[in-house]
Structure formats: structure tokens, C-alpha cells
Amino acid sequence: AKDANGGVYRRYNAELESTWQSRAFILHELETALAEGQFEIYYQPVIHARNGAISAEALVRWRHPERGVISPAEFLPVAERMGLIGKIDDFVFAQVCFQIRHWQDNGMGDIAVSINRSAQDFGNLTGRLDWVDYIQQHEIASHLLTLEITEGVLLQRSTETRNLLRHLRHFGVRISIDDFGTGYSSLAYLKQLEVDYLKIDKSFIRDLETDANDKAIIEAIIVMAKRLDIGIVAEGVETESQLRLLTELGCDWIQGFYYARPMACPDFEQFVRDWRKNVSL
Ligand code: C2E
Ligand code: CA
Ligand code: CA
Ligand code: CA
């Protein structure tokens, strides 16, 4: 399989994870990767369908010295099982904070970035790196950070999780529900916990033009979200007709290969400059 940027993804985990010996090997490799800075953040544009505003989702990549760019689908499940996902997520968070600040200091202005957080590790968010402390210490504009979590996190129903999310949100960090519609779809949490965005999963977008059920579901999600004053993001938008349909249905934010694939930072910055130039014309 080819990755978003033409590099080749290796069948990595299945092959290597088959023995205890190789598990130890991967653990060693992942620790080396963290220590030697082999993880890199790619940015994928998220674009406001009507006003052209641009934001991004941060997506981690492993640039392995011999194996090339490895997709998160390949190594995150391994990292989760090895208990290393938290360290990777902390790295992503700190790096994104640095980047947001850097853009502000270097004339790129405000670019909001959303960050993924593994459900498996979510409970540790307080234990390890305190987002609020970090944001304050480094004077990061908290409203430019969005935390993407899956429905699974909310269904853990722990008071600690809920308090943590409230605390972050109170502090200005936005909360987004990722892969919306694929989880257990208990909507009760939308009432209890205030969230800022719902991301409609790409599985609903794929057959949007041909599958009347998918279209009906998306329509219903959008109507509900509007009523609750929650922003809508559609991910996995690949074609112009999907874009048109989603815009007609009232979807706010669009993310997908139609606009751009996830890109290394310099390419993303170039995309932003070009995009803004075109929008202001
Ligand atoms: P996700 O959060 O659902 O991220 C969206 C995925 O969809 C990304 O895959 C992105 O490249 C892909 N995508 C975007 N537009 C399109 C499109 O138009 N068509 C199709 N077919 N795909 C599209 P990616 O980058 O391989 O990431 C896979 C998953 O890995 C993410 O799914 C997320 O769950 C996880 N992930 C990525 N970065 C991080 C991270 O820093 N921390 C954690 N915990 N998880 C991460
Ligand atoms: Ca995501
Ligand atoms: Ca998603
Ligand atoms: Ca996902």
C-alpha cells in the first residue's frame, strides 16, 4: 500500500509482533524512535465550507531510518499494547503547541489544530503531562487547540474523565468527538457534556451520493448538532460532489483528500499561504 505521500507502508506489526522476541524488538524500536525524534507530525487541512477559514488535524508519522514513513495504523496499536501511546501523544501535543506558537510569531497567524488522544490512554491525561499547566507555562492560545476523542472515552462514564474534559473546555480547549456514529452511539453524553464539534466518520461519507441511508444519517446528525449548537466536521471528503452535498446539508467544516492529504509541515504551510491567497481574491 502507498501512504498519503507516495512512500510505501510496510506490513510492520503483524510480521514482527508474532513472537515475544519481536515484541521486545518493537518496544526497543519505539523507544529509540521517541528518544531519537523519529516521530513527525503531518498536518491535514480542515476547511470551512462557507467562509474559507483553515485549520488542521495533526496526524503522527514514524519516519523510520530504514523502513521509511510508517503509518499510525501500523504502529499505534502496537504502541497502545506496549503502553507507549501516552508518550507519543505527549510528544504530539508539545510539538503542536510549539507549532501554533511558531506560526503566530512568524506571520502565519492563528491556525487551530486538533489532536488525537487514544481512548486507551485517556485516563492518564491527568497523571502525566498536564495540558492546562503546559498551555499556561508556554502561553499557548488554548482556543486554538482541539482535543479529538472517540465515543468510547465518553462511554467510560468515569467522573474523572468528565471532570477533566470540563476543566479543559473551561480553560478554552475545544472538544471534538471523532469517528462520530461508529461507536456505541449513546447520545446521552451530548447532553451531559458540552462538546464543540462532531466529526462525521468517513464511512458515512464514502457512499453519500449513492446510499440514501448514509445521507439520511448525515442529515439527522447535522440537524441535531445545529440544535445543540455543535460544529460539524466531515472527514474523508474525496470528491466535489460529496463536498457539494455536504454543504447543501449544512455541514460546516470539510476535511479530506478533495482538498489535501496530510502533509509534512513545510508543505502544509505552503498550502495555507496558497489557500489564503485564493480565498481573499
Ligand atoms: P482519524 O483520527 O480518524 O484520522 C483521519 C484519518 O483519515 C487519517 O489517517 C487521514 O490521513 C485519513 N484521511 C483523511 N482524509 C481522507 C480521505 O479523504 N479519504 C481517506 N480514505 N482517508 C482520509 P492516518 O493519518 O493514517 O491516521 C489513522 C488514525 O491513527 C487516525 O484516524 C487516528 O485514530 C490515529 N492517529 C493519528 N495520529 C495520532 C496521534 O497523534 N495520536 C493518537 N492517539 N492517534 C493518532
Ligand atoms: Ca481524528
Ligand atoms: Ca476520524
Ligand atoms: Ca479513527
UniProtKB/TrEMBL annotation:
Domain EAL: 23-276
Signal peptide: none
Record localization: Cell membrane
Protein name per the record: Diguanylate cyclase/phosphodiesterase (GGDEF & EAL domains) with PAS/PAC sensor(S)
Organism, as annotated: Methylophaga frappieri (strain ATCC BAA-2434 / DSM 25690 / JAM7)
Residue span relative to the full protein: 837 to 1117 of 1122
